[in-house]
């Protein structure tokens, strides 16, 4: 049979079902708008598995064994293109003009992500000089590169990170190691990836996007350079310094073993529900990041109560799409109520025996809640604060470890012992923390890596507030590589 050497005029996209989220529909429609004569197929999760069952059944043990859905979503494109050929594009890819001109006469076409992405810590650790994106791939059917990719998938399927198992890092290595490189075209980022990810902009500042030469643009709503909840990691042998007090009087100090409390939980000791409380208003970007931190928590019994009094429904739609039953969004009328009143609203809607402040613009280590609850339960305390935190000022490339104090935002407290917040627009949590410390049995844990207080320019307090914290910080770094660790480690 004669092999087809041309890339067929067929577009493939995938989603878990046929109900594509509204925010992606216009981008999906852009491909059919600019290619009215091309075929189009939206593949669902059920379609994908049935396709593999019929054409590549040997791969099903690997496919079904992937621990994360993103791995299956990545892998299936490498089989659809091998079998049918055509163009695969992610749903968050927007077509700006017909791509026939960059595909004519080619057998396999991909594009590089923006060069600045190689400066992110995950890429630097792997020594990548370029990153080949897997969000846009055009291929003729049966290209020999896909047989190479299929072999590499089997070899990589036990690696821990989706980026290396099936994602862009995997594809970059496959391109670099393929014996069929002569028939593969890898375009520069200006053609398909002119826009950098929001996280890259946060770290390195605004990057100029040149759309003049671009045929399409990736919007990075589901990529490796966006915050996504990683598989929760669990440390072993972790011991953290603590000190406990009763109504301001010292009780004890020492080292807390997180493993000891884990053993108690494993043997059936109760893990009370903790309600993480987020108050937010028209700040979906940072709130989504804080939600990713919540979803990565290692503590087993959590809920997130989101109280929002803004007019933008972006965050509400995002929460709906997550379909995480632990997250409850409550929209209030945009009446400009003070922050203290809104915090009380969140407390009233909490169902947990404990409440945990979860500000929408800070970052939280996966073990934050687990460590604080271990301290509360092991020491018979009613509340826990972190004694120190990390301070991050991205615009100034500064990272610090704070001085020791009662950090209000880190509070985890028995709901029944929590006083009402005063009706203040800022600083409302300070009198609450002071009353908790003066009336309750409190444990302070010295583990600054668990919480990162972020200065992003839109905080409740102005920059002078952060400058004061940096002036008395115990450690400060200004090297670019040091503060990268806040988000990539």
Strand order within the widest beta sheet: 10-9-20-16-19-14-11-12-13
Largest sheet: 9 strands, mixed
How far apart, in Å, are the first and last alpha carbons? 51 Å
Shape by Cα distribution: elongated
- Unreliable spans are 226-231, 479-489
Beta fraction of the residues?
15-25%
- Which oligomeric state applies? single chain
Which secondary-structure class do the elements indicate? Answer: alpha/beta
> Rounded to an integer, what's the Rg over CA atoms?
25 Å
Q: In which range does the helix fraction lie?
A: 25-40%
Helical segment count:
19
Strand tally, please?
22
Instruction: Estimate the mean pLDDT confidence.
Output: 90
Description:
This protein is an alpha/beta fold. 36% of the residues lie in helices and 21% in strands. The protein has 19 helices and 22 strands. The strands form four sheets. A nine-stranded mixed β-sheet has the order 10-9-20-16-19-14-11-12-13, sandwiched between helices. A six-stranded mixed β-sheet has the order 2-1-3-6-5-7, with helices on both faces. A five-stranded mixed β-sheet has the order 15-21-17-18-22, sandwiched between helices. The longest helix has 15 residues, at 69-83. The protein is elongated and about 80 Å long.
